[in-house]
Design goal:
Domain GED: 622-714
Helix content: 40-55%
Largest sheet: 9 strands, mixed
Organism: Viridothelium virens (Speckled blister lichen)
Shape: elongated
Strand content: 5-15%
Radius of gyration: 46 Å
Pfam family, one: Dynamin_N
Number of helices: 22
GO cellular component, one term: mitochondrion
Number of strands: 13
Protein name: P-loop containing nucleoside triphosphate hydrolase protein
Length: 714
């Protein structure tokens, strides 16, 4: 292994040892580690370069080429041994039996001359060759063939030989082969920690070689070392030779021979004459390549290891967070009871805070002003959502709660909106508003409506009065939309509570437990409370439709106010109908105030005569009953809004939320089987937990290794 001694300086060895120790922790399966990739066009001499650098002999056969990525892992050991194993591509979809066949392949040899046969066996297992050595059913494979070489004097280094890039289809190589080789190479080039050994054959125009363009496309030029192979094909003093010599300012050149000793002798002879004598000797030959490559790798590692450390820390934090999201694994029933108690306690705390409007906990997050108040992103703030829904309910009761909108023929409606109330921030229930749009009536139309009902429900009351049952019938018809609006409000509040509880459950436990708790316990309990709330609404509506009763003094004030306005309107109308025009005579101008010249005035005698006219008692009663109904509706509207929001929503839906959770998740009341069913961990979650725990172990061990090596390196 003397050909590998170029890698052996104490400084370089310390850095390479660090990567080796990190690899031993398993970090290579988690993070992208620095590596050397040998790539180039097909038959450009990649395998020869890899042989020269590593000292490993590759299989050679007429027409044979690399048809999968071969990763060579070099490690120092007291005794020489070479082990080959296959790592299936993680995104490849395979039958389980095929995966088992690939992962179970593991062959070890102790004689390096047997390496070609070892690789051939692996190719057969991967389906690239058949047992006779001929081309198998698969032309190329995305699986990785890892060859681990342990021996005295072997440094810690990873070399990857990629399949040669195909220019065009020919013979057995179809279009899929071209795509496969390009895709595999691009995948390695994208790794920002990959050092690319771009093999450029002097037999072909370098401008036409695919690897050069691929390195440019993937930003790999700054970490690419170009290597010119087969320079003996260049005619001395030719233009092509001059181009490749110019290209060699940043590249190495080597000639493949039968063994390392002959290669070294041939290189000395070749580069000791002609135009090559004008080039820097540090850019010529395999020894120069090894020396330059080792320094480049050591420098690259020193630059990239801090990035690795930072990425490792981020990955460790992210993985621990994912593991925490699965919750602590509980085995025994007592542990599972404790788990359920913890969930109940945490969930109860969130509910109490949300009902109070205390949004300091992490669960509530940031306010989303880009969506509605009751949108999914904001429903965690339950108190704000309930307030919002109650305001919407109040608005729709005021705007759409009455079946008829009654105008007073020039007199302002006594049910005018509160001027301090701003409804701009509350949206309509669009569909509900369309179905409950009130019918507009003037005063005369409203009185006719009352008159029809009055005439059909007369009792023994005296003329000019009306049956008290009339107000009940009028109010019942006028308030007909209340039930639908209130029922819709309960639906909206219940939906908000369900969505809130699901989000709260998601915050305190993993998804599978959340779903089981919600479906088997909480949803049923909340639906029961919704049923109680609906029953409460039924009782309120039953009271509403009963005999009208009011002890509110505002009822009398409203009736008086309505009648005052009505009589004033009647008086004005009668006054306008009984006026006389004064024609002031010039001879009387000295006795009449000039301000009343040619003026109208009310004739008291005519007005008194009209007032004595007998009125229609039924119409009079209908008018009086309409005033009473309007006043009663106003009082009952305010009461109904309050009783629905306080007694139905708050008492029956919001207040019981915490007790719903406490009762539903009471571990003392649940059997062992129920607790086991609720807290059972699915197989996929168990597998995920096992994988995450393993990953955390790898990352923590890698972090410790970083600290130890950093202390050693200073």
């Amino acid at each position: 292994m003397e050909n590998l001694s170029a890698f052996r300086s104490d400084k370089q060895r310390a850095v390479l040892d660090m990567v080796l120790k990190l690899n031993e922790t398993g970090l290579a399966s988690v993070l992208e580690f620095p590596q050397i990739v040998v790539t180039g066009d097909q038959s450009a001499g990649k395998s020869s370069v890899l042989e020269a650098i590593s000292g490993l002999k590759y299989p050679r056969r007429e027409g044979m080429c690399t048809r999968c990525a071969i990763e060579v892992v070099l490690r120092e050991a007291d005794k020489l041994s070479i082990t080959a194993r296959i790592i299936p591509h993680r995104e490849s979809r395979r039958l389980y039996s095929e995966l088992q066949n690939l992962t179970s392949f593991r062959e070890t040899i102790e004689d390096i001359s047997n390496l070609p046969d070892l690789i051939e066996k692996a190719m057969i297992c991967m389906g690239l060759n058949d047992k006779s050595g001929k081309r198998g059913p698969r032309a190329f494979s995305r699986d990785l063939l890892r060859v681990e070489m342990n021996g005295p004097g072997v440094p810690e280094l990873t070399l990857v030989d990629l399949p040669g890039l195909i220019h065009a289809t020919k013979n057995e190589q179809d279009e899929e082969d071209v795509k496969a080789t390009h895709a595999l190479t691009k995948n390695y080039l994208k790794n920002r920690r990959t050092i690319v050994l771009a093999i450029i054959s002097a037999k072909n125009d370098y401008a036409n070689q695919v690897i050069i363009n691929l390195c440019k496309q993937h930003g790999a030029t700054s970490r690419t070392l170009g290597i010119i192979t087969k320079p003996n094909y260049l005619l001395p003093n030719s233009e092509l030779e001059a181009e490749f010599v110019s290209l060699s300012d940043n590249n190495d050149n080597l000639e493949s021979t039968s063994n390392f000793e002959e290669r070294l002798g041939s290189e000395i002879d070749f580069f000791g004459k002609g135009i090559w004598t004008t080039r820097d000797s540090r850019t010529l030959g395999i020894d120069a390549l090894r020396s330059r490559l080792s320094k480049l790798l050591e420098s690259h590692l020193r630059q990239k290891l801090p990035e690795l450390r930072s990425e490792l820390g981020q990955k460790l934090s992210q993985t621990k967070k994912q593991l925490l999201g699965l919750g602590e694994f509980r085995k025994t029933i007592s542990e599972k009871r404790e788990q359920l108690f913890d969930i109940s306690w945490s969930l109860g705390g969130i509910i109490v805070a949300a009902v109070k409007g205390d949004y300091e906990a992490d669960f509530f997050g940031q306010v989303d002003t880009s969506t509605d108040i009751d949108a999914q992103t904001n429903v965690v703030r339950l108190r704000a959502v309930i307030q919002y829904l109650n305001r919407k309910f109040t608005k729709h009761m005021r705007l759409h709660g009455h079946k008829y909108t009654i105008a007073f023929g020039g007199i302002e409606d006594v049910l005018e909106e509160d001027p301090e109330q701003d409804w701009d921030d509350v949206e309509d229930y669009d569909q509900l508003a369309k179905t409950l749009k009130p019918k507009n009536w003037n005063r005369l139309q409203a009185e006719r409506w009352v008159l029809k009902i009055l005439q059909r429900c007369k009792g023994r009351e005296l003329p000019g009065s009306y049956n008290p049952e009339l107000i009940r019938l009028l109010f019942s018809e006028q308030s007909e939309p209340w039930e639908k609006i209130a029922s819709t409000h309960i639906d909206h509040v219940a939906k908000a509570c369900h969505r809130f509880l699901l989000l709260a459950l998601r915050h305190v436990t993993r998804e599978d437990i959340r779903d089981r708790l919600y479906r088997s316990r909480i949803r049923h309990a909340l639906n029961n409370e919704v049923a109680v709330a609906r029953k409460e609404l039924e009782n309120i509506l039953e009271d509403k439709n009963g005999p009208p009763v009011s002890y509110n003094h505002t009822f009398t004030l409203t009736v008086q106010r309505l009648r005052h306005r009505k009589y004033c309107s009647i008086l004005k109308r009668m006054s306008r109908a009984n006026t006389t025009f004064i024609n002031v005579d010039d001879s009387e101008m000295t006795t009449i105030d000039p301000q009343v010249w040619a003026k109208h005035y009310v004739d008291p005698d005519k007005l008194r005569e009209v007032a004595r006219e007998a009125a229609d008692m039924d119409r009079f009663s209908a008018s009086e009953a309409l005033d009473s109904q309007i006043a009663y509706y106003k009082d009952e509207l305010k009461y109904f809004i309050d009783v629905v929001t306080k007694q139905v929503v708050e008492r029956r839906l919001i207040k019981p939320l915490a007790s719903i959770v406490k009762t539903s998740l009471s571990a003392e009341k649940l059997s062992d089987k129920e607790i086991s069913d609720i807290t059972a961990e699915p197989l996929d979650v168990s597998s995920q937990r096992e994988e995450l725990e393993h990953l955390v172990g790898i990352l923590e061990q890698g972090d410790e290794t970083f600290e130890q090596v950093e202390l050693t390196l200073g």
